[in-house]
Amino acid sequence: MGIVVNSAPYPSWGDGGTSYGMDAALHVYPGLDSVFICLATRDMACNRLIYAWVPKIYGLTE
User: Total domain count for the chain?
Assistant: First the structure.
């Protein structure tokens, strides 16, 4: 399992989809004082959940 790092606009780390049958993601929102950690037994479940939920909760969508 490799780790993928994304730094813009908010830092995140995850498995990058290289681990079949599971997903892991860590997203840091320093301006919101929030960290979201997700471990799932489904492919790509964490990023879909975080990217759909976090912007709506914190009003980051246009």
Answer: 1
